[in-house]
Amino acid sequence: MINFDFDYYRPSKIEDAYNLMNKLANDGLKAVYYSGGTELITSFRKGTVKADAVIDIKNIEGMTIINNKSIEVTIGSCASLNKVIETFKDTILSEVLVTIADHTARNAITIGGNILGKLTYKEALLPLLALKASVLVYTKEGIKEITLEQVFDKRIKLDKADILFQIKFNKNNMSTYHTKRYTESTEVDYPILHIVSTKIETGYFIGLSGYSNFPIYQNFELKETIEEDIYNYFEEFAKEDIRSSKDYRRHLLKTVLKDMEMGLEGFND
């Protein structure tokens, strides 16, 4: 149960949503954007987040679109995880997204909500970074296209009123990949370690979620010591929490790197 009142708005144009957010802020009111709402509603019910207004952006044209008909893919930020999974079956994107929550929850969780939410895991970021995705963001200057890497620093950094509109990537960036996810208990639990790796021209892209207080990634040159190089780079980021110790996370990372058996032709397992 939500124990406070708020105003609800559902604009049909992205510029109206942006202007409304600014107007409410100028009036001294706290407003939030609403897409999937799973994390937001939970926070409302727990009382950890309160707002004077909710701006539902799902009705804006282009926010739920998935265009997979050409080499350049476009995904609206309000597209549900299940819709993305169904569209990109047997790819790095579906392989990662299908591990987030359960099927019912994924009908509501949006890809934009996952990467923008307050939860530290943001697992959808890993394949998007591996795919060298860019994002279309509505700002005071209109819609701008920026690489995801440019706006990501521990979290996606946008101004308060900015709206994540769409995500784009090139299908040619899809390559040989490997993923492995460890949890404390059930498969739908948050990850202790989720590793996503893809073969790139010079070596490997490695991304981790659950291992640190934020998703982390790096590109590594293919050479004899690559497994050692990867472990040494990520070792210091290991976190300690109620789900796992630092040492156990490091142990899992060592184990999965050994199992991946990297080689010039890709993964050998």
What's the arrangement of secondary structure elements?
Elements: E1 7-9, H1 14-26, E2 31-34, H2 38-46, E3 53-56, E4 66-67, E5 72-76, H3 81-87, H4 92-97, H5 103-106, H6 111-116, H7 125-130, E6 134-139, E7 142-147, H8 148-151, E8 163-170, E9 177-183, E10 191-200, E11 203-209, E12 216-221, H9 226-235, H10 246-260, E13 262-263, E14 266-267
Keywords: FAD, Flavoprotein, Oxidoreductase
GO molecular function: FAD binding; oxidoreductase activity
Domain FAD-binding PCMH-type: 1-174
Word description of this protein:
The chain has 269 residues and is an alpha+beta fold. Helices cover 30% and strands 27% of the residues. The chain is built from 10 helices and 14 strands. The strands form 4 sheets. A 5-stranded antiparallel β-sheet has the order 4-5-8-6-7. It has a 4-stranded antiparallel β-sheet with strand order 9-10-11-12.
